[in-house]
Write the structure tokens for this entry.
Amino acid sequence: MSERSAAGGEAVSEFELSCATCGGTLSRTAVSGDTLGVAVEREVVLAECVDCGERYFPRETLDELT
Ligand SMILES: [Zn+2]
């Protein structure tokens, strides 16, 4: 495992990672909270695998949902 060292401690974006399930590319997308079944009326940003459809929530999105 190689860990990226970012100057200034900037976190690596979820969108730059690969799908943990199939290794596919993650695409930035936005869906309504209603679609996700969460109590958020506006759209939330998440990373969705273009191959298997697995969804990953960026830290910033999780912070908004909680
Ligand atoms: Zn995948």
